[in-house]
Structure formats: structure tokens, C-alpha cells
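Expect chain and fold; thus:
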Amino acid sequence: MARHGIPDSGDQAKSANGRFLSGLPPSMAKMLQYFYKVMMGLREDVTEKDFKGVLSDCLEKLVELAEGEHQEA
């Protein structure tokens, strides 16, 4: 919503996101913040090649998180 300037009437989305994030392990909540920043910074005219690079970076971070969670268990 923020990326496209859609107003959050009564902070409903912000509140729902906060409730969702508070129920996640801190490492996962941090990862979602990373994805948010990446997507907010993505150009509107991104090329397919650049977008694939962004997705590859995101996937790499996700795998690192998953492997880290698995090792902690």
C-alpha cells in the first residue's frame, strides 16, 4: 500500500501487520522487514534481469534464515 500511495484508513493495515509480526520469531520478523525495504526500493521500470537478481538475493536470504532456524532447533 505504501509503495503505491494507498492510504491506510485508521492505521488498520499497520495494526494488522504489527500483530502479525509480533507473533513471529524475531529472525523472521527481521526478514520480513528486509523484504519490505527491498520491495519499497524497487524501481517501477525494473528490468526482468534486475528483478531476477532481486529475487535471487531474497531467496538467498530466506535460505540463510531457514538453515539458521534449522540449526538452532
